[in-house]
Amino acid sequence: MPRSFADANGDGIGDLAGIIDKLPYLEWLGIDAIWLTPPYPSPLRDGGYDITDFTAIHPDLGSLDDFRLLLDRAHACGIRLILDLVLNHTSVLHPWFQRARWAAPGTPEREFFVWRDDERGYADAPVLFRHFESSNWEWDPMAGQYYLHRFLRHQPDLNYANPAVEEAMLQVVDFWLEQGVDGFRLDAVPFLFEAEHSRCEGLPETHAFLRRLRSRVDACGRDVLLLAEAIQPVRESAPYLADDELHAAFDFALTAHLFAAVAHGRCDDLLHCLSHAQEMVPGCRWALPLRNHDELWLGDGHLVEQSVIEAILNGFPEGRDHWLNWGINRRLAPLLNGDPRPNTLLHGLLYSLPGLPCLYYGDELGMGDWPGLRDRDANRTPMAWTRAPNGGFSTAPDPLLVLPPITAPGFDYRMVNVEVQQQLSGSLLNWHHRMLTSRRLLPALRHGDVVWLESGHPGVLCYARHCPECQDGDAPQPSMTVVVAANVSSAGASTQLELGRWQGSRMRDTLWGCEFPAASDAWFVYLPAYGFFWWLVGE
What we know:
This protein has about 550 residues and is an alpha/beta fold. Helices cover about 30% and strands about 15% of the residues. Strands 1-2-6-7-8-9-13 form a 7-stranded parallel sheet, covered by helices on one side. Strands 14-15-18-23-20-21 form a 6-stranded antiparallel sheet. Helix 6 (about 165-180) packs parallel to helix 7 and helix 14 packs parallel to helix 16 (about 430-440). The mean pLDDT is about 95.
């Protein structure tokens, strides 16, 4: 969230210059890319996802020159920049919508959005923001018709059945490619087209447009990531990852299963979810989030089974009374009641499973939240940098801050901040630094194949990541195998792992270099509560 990360000019609002100032920290942490939520001009009724100009920067954040400087400085640090692109809708203040509402029905201007004379259309499409909206339609007195909005009423849906809309959005993509961005996180991709008697999600016309988008991006001649935000089951998300469509998609079902596994201390459903995703789309094309700027989306039984939702609600009482729309509106650390053990377990899995692990700003510290703030602002509070006032986020007086810093017991910014945790070798922040450094040094964890291994304990998940000899950057890399075992339960687990395929091979803990007995058919290990190991197999 650029507005909540770092404020360089002291006006109380995070900006692009603040991100530039913090690039040395991000480089030290070990991340590969920055995903920015929308930095475009906006009335900010939905955190910037209500856009009035797709080809400019909000003046609170800086200018296009600042954006280009951020790109250059990030690239110099070996960090890529992924830009959030909202394809589905605009703000009601966007010039496109203002022209549409005053234009006559059937004119090219009016046809940029979806209009009806009544609000009975697309009745099978669920209302996504159920705590704020009772319908997907809103009456516009100037137009004399209802317009469709799958999100909030001030975010009218673009009409992708109109070829002019498709071309306008492809020109937006062209503009940012010319600036040099390294990828796009495509917001709400399932909802671009509508059809009666359907949920209006993932229709064939949507996939056809995404193929045109992929072709447009490929024509620029650079490696540009197209990442789909599709809050759908894997079977419905997988088609976005066709070879001629998008490169990656979020696996939100896995997020729910990770929390459910920790909640009830069993990993059978989690293993099924993981293996199913790999069967549908093998390799490392699933993006893996734990938390983000929205609620922890669980859905109405469409994304995951009701039993998974109930396990999470029962297992995490800190989230039970903080339900928003279709999920829990809490950050990771407070949801886990501040316990660092399941926190490190979940991130240890994220960093070693096949895919693109996503780290939400502040979660590397175990940062807290502010329940009760408007909408999803509870999860979007300022980053804690130092013990200084406002956590070093800004020198502005408190009333001018974009959101209040965290002062809740156990999460106070004077204790939970970058400055303090960098000085403590055993801090959560330094743990993330070590883990990301290890992951960078282990190609098997970044792009290796995965093999699911048997364990003798219902709470222990075990798998191996393997990559053959390959070229990693400029240097050739020998073949590598890393075995991972994780205990998702709150009790210690002594179990046998089936490592016979590596019989007699050397086994070393990758984080500390400790030697373990050579691999064998009957290889026993003890894992503490929420404990896990990464072992390097062989010499």
